[in-house]
Amino acid sequence: MSRRSLWTLIALVAVGVLLFLLLPPAPRRLLTGAGWDDLAARTVGGAYHVHTTRSDGHGDKGAVAAAAARAGLQFVILTDHGDGTRPPDPPEYVSGVLMIDAVEISTDDGHYVALDMPRAPYPLGGSGESVVEDVHRLGGFGVAAHPDSPRAALRWTDTSAPIDGIEWINADSEWRDEPRGRLLRAGLAYFFRPAESLATLLDRPATLDRWNALLKSRQVVALGATDAHGGPGQRVEDQDRTLFSTIGIPSYEASFRELSVRVVLERPLSGNAPEDARRLMGAIRKGSVFTVIDAVGSPGFLDFHVVPSGATVTLIAQATLASGGQIVLQGAAGELARSAGELRHEVPAETPGAYRVEVTVPGAPGEPPVPWLVSNAIRVGQPAETGIATTGPPEVRGAPIPPFPWRIEKDPASSAIVRTFDHAVELEYTLAEGDRRSQFVALASDPRQQSFRAIDLDLRSDRPTRVGVQVRIADGRRWGRSFYVDPAGTAVHAELGAMRAVGESTAGPPPGESVTSIILVIDLTNASPGRSGRLTVRSSALVK
C-alpha cells in the first residue's frame, strides 16, 4: 500500500470515527401488534405551527405540503403572522395532506395563535388579554405560542389571560439557550441525520410546569409546535431565528420528522377537506391530541382513558414503548405512578383533578431529558372552568360626566367631528391614510380633580371595534385598558386598578385623585390607516 493510500485510509477512518461520535442515534422503530390497528387508523399525524412565504417562511403552501407528505404526515396547520383580518383559506388537500389555515398574532404580551377562527372585523393586537378575548368572541381557539422562549419579544408573559391552549414545547425555541458546542455538533450532524440532529437540542421544557399549574383550575390543551420556517424566509419577526437559516436549515421536512402532533379521531379521515378539518379541530379543542418526538422513536400511539368503578375511577394508559421505556402518570402534585407496560391507577371519582401521561425513552436527549410522548389531560370530578367568564353588563352609576367639555384629541393628519346631545356625545372620525404614523383620534374629558376608582361608560360604535379607555395625569403619564364595543351597545366598567401603563416609563396603578383627563382612544392598535367610523358615548359616570 502506497503512503498516499495509507493516509487516505487513515483519513477515512478518522472521519468515520468522528461521525460515529457526532451522529445521534437513528429513531427507534417501535413494534405494534394487531391490537393497535383500529386506533392507528384513527390517529392522524400532523404539524402544528408552520410558516410560509405569506409571512416569514421559506416555502409556499405547495412546498410545505410536499415536505409533509414525504415525512408521512396527514395534516399541517399553517400559522403565518398576521392580525386576523385576512380571510383564512378554506381547508384543502395538497399532495394528499390536509392544509388548515390559522394565524399567529403579535400582542404586547407575546404571540398568540388563533385556530379555527373566521376573519376578524378589525386588526387584532394590543394586550394579550384583549386578543384572547377577541379570539374567544369570534369562536376561535387560541394557543399561547413559545411561552418560555429565551427571546423576550417572543415569550408569552400574560399569566392570567384564559388561554385555550399552550405550546408545551416549541422546536424553534429549544435551540436558543443551548451552548455553542452543542449547536455546532448538531449543525454538523444535520447533514447526515437532519431530524435526529434537531432533536438533540431538545430538553424537558419548564413550560410543562406552567401547564400543570394551569390545569389545577381549568382545562388547557397542550400542543407540540414545530414552528417550522423551512430556512431563511423573509426574517420579519425574528432576525436570528435559526443557527443555519441562511442556507435553508432546518428544512420543512427535517422539522416535520423531528416532532409531530397526533390527533385521535372517532373515525379515519374521509378525504373531504372541510369535513375533515372540522373533525380535526373539534378533536384538538377537546384535547384528543398528543405529541410525539418522532426523531427519537416511532410510531407513537396512545390509548388513555378512564373507567368508572363506583367511588373511584381507573385511569388506564397504553402506549407503544421502546425497550426500557415507561408510562408516567402525572397529577397536580407531580408523578403518581409509572409502568413499563399498561398503566392502571385509581383516583377518587368526586375529587376534582387533571391527569396526563408522559412516556419516557432511555437515552432521550436533553438535560433533563425530553419526554418522548406527552398526552393531554383527562379531568376527573367537577368540570374545570374553561374560556372567558361572562357576566351581565355593569350598571352605569356614580357622578355623571357632563357632555361638556368633551373635546377631540388627534394626530395632525386625522380628522374628527364631535356632536353633543343632552346626555350623550358622538365622535365621527377618519384616521389619516397612508403609512402607519401613529394615527389616532380620541374623545377627552376632564374629571375636575374628582377622586374615583372606576369609570362606567355605555358605548356604541357603528361597527365592531376596540376602544382604549385611558386616564392621564398632569405630567402626561397615561394608563389604559382596551374594551370591545359592539354596534348594539356595550357597557364598560373600567377599573383604574386594572389599567396598564402606556409607555415604558410609567409604572404602578394610576392614582385616581391625580387624574386630569379621561380619554377614549381609537388608534392603529385595532384599526388601519384610513379607517372611518362613529363612536357614541350614551352615558358615563365616575365610580367613587
- Apparent shape: globular
Largest sheet: 15 strands, mixed
Query: Could you report the average pLDDT, rounded to the nearest whole number?
Result: 90
- What share of residues are in beta strands? 25-35%
Q: State the total count of DSSP E strands.
A: 32
Low-confidence stretches: 13-17, 386-394
Helix fraction bin = 10-25%
Q: For the terminal residues, how far apart are their CA atoms?
A: 97 Å
How large is the radius of gyration? 27 Å
Backbone structural class: alpha+beta
What is the number of helices? 10
Q: Which key phrases capture this entry?
A:
544 residues, alpha+beta, 15-stranded mixed sheet, 18% helix, 35% strand, globular
Provide structural commentary.
The chain has a 15-stranded mixed β-sheet that branches. The termini are far apart. Helix content is 18%, strand content 35%. The chain is globular. The protein contains 10 helices and 32 strands. α3 links the parallel β2 (43-50) and β3. The chain has 544 residues and is an alpha+beta fold.
